[in-house]
Structure formats: structure tokens, C-alpha cells
Design a protein that fits this description.
The protein is an alpha+beta fold. It has 13 helices and 10 strands. It has 2 domains: about 210 residues, Fumarate Reductase Cytochrome B subunit, CATH 1.20.950; about 140 residues, Rieske Iron-sulfur Protein, CATH 2.102.10. Helix 1 runs parallel beside helix 10, helix 2 packs across helix 3 and helix 2 runs antiparallel to helix 4. The two termini are about 20 Å apart. The relative contact order is 0.07.
């Protein structure tokens, strides 16, 4: 229930408030939609805060927007380690820059008497929320590195699901607390936007692009004389440049509209596919159905069976693990220890849920390739300094002979009952199974 509220109900409520509140404010009192600049009261500190904040947050926003719009392209680009590290450095640097700018703006609001006089409670609330949100983003970047790579397969599908009315709260619910706080606070901030001066960011003065050039001078004779002595531009040339810019913008708008219209027509009318295309499309649909049916068959098997066969005991190896699916439909690995007995361990990384590799190194460790955590296959513990802090859970097992008789078993807490001789003549027929009684909650 909390997950449904925080990751489904709250986002839709926030988006409704954002849209409805902005429209209401525009209809009711549109002239309050402004940044209410305090530059005339104090300009020097404002410059040191406003510029870093706007530059930093713009870079961060673009870094969040691109993987949302073009996830496949983003994943292909960030698959290059050098590019990924570069993106991480730029993103973290931009976040730090935005935090420094916000710190200056917040300090200015709190300490400058002239600015205090025009500062409302909501001004302080939104500044504090933005500061906390940016700091949470920095903490996420440090504690869960390479977010540019993993977020495209976790957070971005969740956000896209909100807009396609198919949100998957589980994509966020299993993440670390700092990431969940970052997501929830983002929607809280969006809900408050219409009731603060931050709403001015949603109003773009497009009419300025088509307004005739204007020359603004101070109402001062001395200032007017100084400007008159400076060389000025040709007004006719300025108008020509404005017309060229408007034509370029109009051309870009026509191309964009044509592309959108083409997609809309194709969606309504449907593409006329050739016989081969139809066969290929049908084969893809059949493949997806078969994959779904296979998964449902596995789930049904685990609901009905007290034990599920993992592999023959003789098939297990010390360094090359065999993947299987446990009762919770999670990936797991089977190895063989130095006594020839099974080692069953979860293959779901305790950091962000990636699937760990199946090949153990010389130290008996398996690697999570997402964020470089090494786990000991005997204990499940991660290496010191790894992003993952919790060990991989050990799974219980039973060994039975060809007739189905249980010869030995091991519970999830390590209690062993019975014994087997892996070198016995009939050991090749021994089966290693997971048991429902040892199922992890």
C-alpha cells in the first residue's frame, strides 16, 4: 500500500496539481506568473547564485530528459565506459554547481534585509526543497554510481509508465532509500510549482520572437548622451535578421509537425505491411506469448511442487555457476564446494537488483557488472568498499537419488542433515533440488 501511494498515487496527484494549478493561476491572475526578480534590490550576490544554479540545473535536466525520450540511444551511448564516466562526471559537476548556486540564493534570501522584505514563506520552502532535492541527487550519484546506465532500465521505464498509464511501482520500491526519497521529493516539488514563483519557468515568452526590435534607455540625460555617442546597429538589418530567425523557426516547426502528423496518421490508419513483414510481426508476437507462457509454467510448477530440480550433482562446478530460478522467480546460481556438495546462492545483487555473473574468480568471488561488486560464493558477502552492502542470500537444498529418496539437505541458515559421497558409484544420478520448505521470504 505505501508503494502504491508514493509511486503511483502521489505522482498522478502531483501532475494533476501541476497542470490544473498552473491553468487556474494563469486564468485567475496571470500577471503573478513572474520570477519577481530582486535584481534592482541587490545584484552582485544574485549574479553569483543565479548563473551557477541555472547552468547546473539545465545540464542536470537535459541529462534526465534524454534517457527518458530516447532510452535505446542513451543505453547504446553509455555502454562505452569512457562515455559513461564522462557523463557521470559532467552530471555530478553540474549538480554541485546547482547546489552552490542555490546555497548563495538561499543565503541571500535569509541574510539580506532588503531581500527579506520581498521574500515569502513559499519562496523559502521551494528553495529548501530544491536544495534538498539537488543534494539527494548528489548522494545518489556518489552512493549508486553509474546511474546514467542503470536508470535507463529502471527509473526511466517507471516514469514512462506513468505517462502511458501503466506505472510499475516495483521498479522503485526495491531501490535504496535515498533513491526513493529523490523520486518522491521530485513529485512533491512538482505539486508545489503552481503556488510559487517557480511557475514562471513554464511560461515561455514566444511573442518576444516576433516583436519589433526595441531600444531601451535610462530616463537620464547623461545616460542618453552616452548612448547617443555610441555607434548603433542598423534597425533595418535587425529586422531582416529577425525575419530570418522567424522563418527558420517556422521551418523547423513545419518539419516537426509533419513528423508528428505522419506518426499520428500511421497510428490511426495502421501501417500497410507486406506478407513477410506480417509474418515477422506475427512471429515476434508468438515469441513473446511463448516467453510469457514459459514464465507462467515456471510459476505454476513452483506453486505445485515441494522440490524443483536444479541440476545433477555431477554437473556442478567450483568456478562456473549454473543459473536457475528459485521459488520467488528470482535468478540464482549453483556451484560445487571443495567437498563436492552444492552451494546455492542468489544471483540478484543486493545493491540495485542486477543479475551477477556466473564465473567465479581465483578468490571464489562472482561479479555484479552493473556497479562492480564482488561477492564471495561461500558466504555471499560483498568485498570491502563495494556499492552493495548486504550479502547475497544462501539458498537451502536437498540431494535425492534416482528413486527420489532424500539423501542430504541443507537449510538456508546452514543446518545440514544427512550425508552423501560425491564419489559413490551412483553419485552421477544424484539430483540437487531447491525445496519449498527452505523458501526465502
Amino acid at each position: 500500500m505505501p508503494s502504491a501511494f508514493f509511486y503511483v498515487g502521489l505522482p498522478y496527484a502531483a501532475l494533476a496539481l501541476l497542470v490544473g494549478g498552473t491553468v487556474w493561476r494563469f486564468k485567475r491572475d496571470r500577471f503573478t506568473i513572474t520570477s519577481l526578480s530582486s535584481q534592482v534590490l541587490e545584484a552582485r550576490t544574485l549574479a553569483f547564485g543565479s548563473l551557477p544554479w541555472h547552468v547546473g540545473i539545465l545540464v542536470v535536466f537535459v541529462g534526465h530528459l534524454i534517457p527518458f525520450l530516447v532510452p535505446e540511444l542513451w543505453q547504446a551511448v553509455t555502454a562505452n565506459p569512457a562515455v559513461l564516466i564522462g557523463v557521470e562526471i559532467v552530471g555530478l559537476g553540474a549538480a554541485v554547481l546547482a547546489a552552490l548556486g542555490l546555497g548563495v540564493l538561499l543565503t541571500r534570501r535569509l541574510l539580506n534585509a532588503r531581500i527579506q522584505a520581498v521574500t515569502s514563506t513559499m519562496d523559502l520552502v521551494i528553495l529548501l526543497l530544491l536544495m534538498v532535492q539537488v543534494l539527494l541527487g548528489i548522494v545518489v550519484a556518489i552512493t549508486a554510481p553509474y546511474g546514467a546506465a542503470w536508470s535507463a532500465g529502471t527509473l526511466m521505464p517507471y516514469v514512462r509508465g506513468l505517462f502511458t498509464l501503466s506505472p510499475d511501482a516495483a521498479l522503485v520500491a526495491e531501490m535504496p532509500a535515498v533513491i526513493k526519497a529523490h523520486v518522491v521529493l521530485a513529485f512533491v516539488t512538482l505539486a508545489l510549482v503552481p503556488f510559487t514563483r517557480l511557475v514562471h519557468a513554464l511560461v515561455v515568452p514566444i511573442h518576444y520572437l516576433f516583436r519589433l526590435p526595441q531600444r531601451v534607455v535610462w530616463a537620464s540625460i547623461r545616460r542618453a548622451e552616452e548612448l547617443d555617442n555610441q555607434p548603433g546597429g542598423d534597425p533595418a538589418e535587425g529586422r531582416r535578421d529577425l525575419v530570418k530567425g522567424a522563418l527558420g523557426l517556422a521551418g523547423a516547426g513545419v518539419l516537426l509537425a509533419a513528423g508528428v502528423l505522419d506518426k499520428l496518421v500511421r497510428f490511426v490508419k495502421g501501417d500497410a505491411m507486406s506478407k513477410d513483414q506480417k509474418e515477422h510481426h506475427m512471429a515476434q508476437k508468438l515469441g513473446r506469448l511463448e516467453q510469457t507462457a514459459s514464465q507462467r509454467a515456471l510459476e505454476l510448477e513452483r506453486m505445485r511442487s515441494e522440490t524443483i530440480t536444479v541440476a545433477k550433482l555431477s554437473e556442478l562446478q567450483p568456478k562456473s555457476g549454473k543459473y536457475f530460478i528459485d521459488y520467488q522467480m528470482r535468478p540464482a546460481l549453483a556451484f560445487q564446494d571443495e567437498k563436492g556438495l552444492p552451494i546455492l546462492i542468489s544471483a540478484k545483487c543486493t545493491h540495485l537488483g542486477c543479475t551477477v555473473g556466473s564465473q567465479a574468480d581465483d578468490q571464489g568471488r562472482i561479479l555484479c557488472p552493473c556497479h562492480i561488486s564482488y561477492f564471495d560464493i561461500k558466504t555471499g558477502r560483498p568485498n570491502d568498499g563495494a556499492p552493495a552492502k548486504e550479502p547475497l542470500p544462501r539458498l537451502g537444498w536437498v540431494i535425492r537419488d534416482a528413486k527420489g529418496k532424500v539423501l542430504a539437505s541443507r537449510s538456508a541458515d546452514g543446518t545440514v542433515e544427512g550425508s552423501v559421497d560425491p564419489k559413490a558409484p551412483d553419485a552421477a544420478s544424484y539430483e540437487v533440488c531447491i525445496a519449498k520448505k527452505y523458501e526465502e521470504a
